[in-house]
Amino acid sequence: MISSTAWISRGLAARHPQKQELDDEELARVSHLANRELVDATRDLRAAEKGDGDGWEDVESSGEEMEEDTNEDPDDLSRYRLDEYDQEPSQSIALGSLSQIRGVSAYRTNEDDPYITLPNDPADEDEEREQLEVLPTDNLVYVSKTEDELSMVEAYLYSAQDQSLYVHHDLLLPAFPLHLEWLDYAPAPVSDAPNQRVAGSMGNFLAVGTMDPEIEIWDMDTVEGVYPNAVLGQRDNTSSLDAPAGTGKKKRKIPKARVANADYHVDAVLNLSWNRQARNLLASGSADKTVKIWDLSRPMSGTDSKALRSFDAHTDKVQSVAWQVSGAGMISATANPAVLLSGSYDQTIRIFDTRMPEQALIAKIGADVESVRWNGWKNQSFMVAMENGVVQGFDARKLSSTPSSDDAQFTLVAHDSACTALDISPHIPGCFVTGGTDRQVKVWSMDDEETEKPRSINLVTARDLSVGKVFSASFSPNDPLTVAVGGSNGKLQIWDTLINGGIRRTFGDRLRRMNQYSDHHSQPVAEPRLDDDSSLADRTDVVQVDNDAESDEDMEE
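Structure tokens predicted for rRNA-processing protein:
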């Protein structure tokens, strides 16, 4: 399944990504960090195999009755398993095929390995370099994916010119990924790590929130990465936290309880938001019911990194966080880099200045929050997608510190089931997209440019893109009406909605006013007319890796 997507604007990724090269000091550091995790995993494995001792306690039965004893044959010796007495217990099965290998040595490069005698072919290196090249006209789309219990981030290269989409490179993750957040700010290097970028330098980085309490930040201009550039949290303190109980009659005693604190998360990181104005700040929402602010300019020490600020105003999991933003072309409305929006399973929305969190504004909603988004086109406005399929819009200036369910400016029943994806176009005012577990992706038009409340909200087009239940839908940063969609079947789809006639008729005037249409197709061809279907006849609206996938017809309203 695909749980999250993140677009990268054209020209921001390195044209020629580099493979990670480890010198002796960096190799020793990474090996030390990896060995600590291996030691913890080995300890847990041995404890699980032992399966007895003081680490177990009785748990009440769930009502299942014990099987009654049956009459046994006194001459039946099979229960004593005499034929297995000469077999010694072994852990080789649990450790896999590597347990049979002795004296394994690892080398940084093939040149250092004495068993590799063939030299590298320069032609092969040139071919590989060409395959990894990212052109200035290409976008990268990062996708968090889990398949057959293997979790990873896949970097897709998307060319709008050629309408091509393929996996450029990937990296493995230690836990189930929940959210991706792109940032251009290089985090402060670990204090003992050599040859890392200076904190704050421009780059191409990805923050990853997973079921683990830590946040990993990876340099995505490096392929075949071994270890993240930064880890936000304290893995030493969270590695021994309790895990979900099993289904047997007994369970292991809890070494440490998941008690929230001000320094680091102790449960899954559900959402992330990077501050594009105060570039060193990253916000996170967690299942431990807290919101934390991380200062990426603060040097790490080993694997430890403490949060700059922590807020515990919510009483349930914090599902979504968002720094205040402004859309392209906005003049009067400017974003306040200190204002943060958060939504929780406690069915409340909170807006607060991170410098004065006690003065929060609160909105009460009727279901669990799935996603929150600021509307950059209207000052102080934001939208909320909920578990019951409803999308509501609010004006922060109309809220107070007392929760109320009557503060919404509009209520839209967007989907028949949970509305799990929401994004507001940064290019076109009044355009937003939703996705739900009903497998539908919908593009909406909101007419509210000159009024406090929207005069109308209309469904422009809806589509089943064959991605299963939709978990992510996000607008391209370059092409105003192109959307990346991912869902439960693990397939990424790039939907160019401009092919749809209803989209062109609805948003054509706004595209012209924003002077964005000329940038929609970067290739030097004649600009198609917005009211002419024939000019787009040779283009397909859905670009996918699997070209054999079928998609449903558009529905216009």
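The mean pLDDT is 80.
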